[in-house]
## 1
Amino acid sequence: MGKIRRKLTKSFSYAIDGIKYTIKSQPNMRIHLGVGTIAIAAGIAFRIASYEWLALVIVIFFVFILEILNTAIETLVDLYTEDYHHLAKVAKDTAAGAVMVAAIMSVCVGLIIFLPKIVNWFF
């Protein structure tokens, strides 16, 4: 049991190191964290419904996941070659594009959830 626990602890430690690396090295990840925090605070303030929380949490974490994967892809490409290569650019650009699509989707979800509440708050 002790050996399994040590392996599991190491595994979690490596995962946390990867998340920390992404937060420290990627300005966009810090932006995503800030916007996600604001969205959660808005959810609390507006007392959104459980199904709205579900949508909000899914899109926030989806963006985080893709930003972490984007960082991994960029790092692997940089490890492979520092020279310009068209396919390296394609790999980096498509990974970044996936993050952007997810971020746009999360903004759409946020607008669907919060815009009516904001409008009702003012009128």
## 2
Amino acid sequence: MNWYPIKLTAYTNAYVFGGRLIQERLGKKNLPDGIVAETWEISDYEDKTGTVTNGNFAGRTLHDLVETYPDELVGENWRGPHFPMLQKFISASSRLPIHLHPDDETAQRLYRKPNGKTEAWHILWTAPNASILVGIKPGLKSEQLFDAFKKQDYDAVMPRFPIKAGDTVYVPSGIIHSFGPDTLIFEVEQTSDLSSDVMPIDMQGNSRSQDEWEKCINTTLDQLRPHYQPRPFAGLSRQEGDNRYLVACAGPYFALERWTLNAPHDEPEHPWRCLTLSNVGKPVQIEYQGGSEMLATGESCIIPATLSKVRIVPTQEQSGAASLIACYVPDLERDVVIPLKESGYSDEEIRALGEVDIL
């Protein structure tokens, strides 16, 4: 079997908070007209699984490949119901609903789904003075939260933090959150679409009755977890020659890095895990044994676990460095902790990446 970088179709959502930021600020092409709130770049979620657009696997779904070739595609000895990460570009032209995602236990118990959703946001662009609402202020009771949500006084109970391009926010399941307006992000998460919110309207902008609204608030409060306070984080960087590698966040479900490439990057072999790449800069050429693949601005691909000797080469079409977002399911000690300690980072700095246990 000849493996290669795999590109997929992108599913789009036209939620009420969306706009045209993915096209206008990122430069992603071939989007539908009108509101585009999300493009699901790498997805194996139920009927929204991507279809391969290139190479020998063209026309097959990502879910088909995951089921047929789990070791070669995802990683040696990996087994699961679906590809383990879902990745999106999100255009928050308006503020997202105040919402949360259930944890794994709740997803299995209440929704009969294999997992909940921990996620992270990597900020690509914001208007000046942009901020996020995330988590719950300490010491508040459910009654106080319910009253604030009914009054739509979110700042009374949720911390607000300023954000800027380059920040990353790690958001575990059960943590209530929102961002926008005028914010463009890349999001990586567990493969799930479960959520609950506290809003008087739904994601399509339809009004809810008072009973429906209060039921939504109570469902959200039942799933709320106050154990973690997310904060924007600038990441931990290392320089290798002309290239800069930023570890932006990490936890048991995914790690996210931002690569700034002025020179070719040689990706080491890692048969225990695959790698996804999303291009948020100028085009790059991905060279591998047997061929090459261009990754255009706004495009994403999967580098299969079995694919070795991959080189990523910035093109000369435009000035400036190439910029890529790389995601993977880490062996935290091997892939994150040891390399960062070797670069001189402390245990405290590494823990700030998200949910990283250090022995």
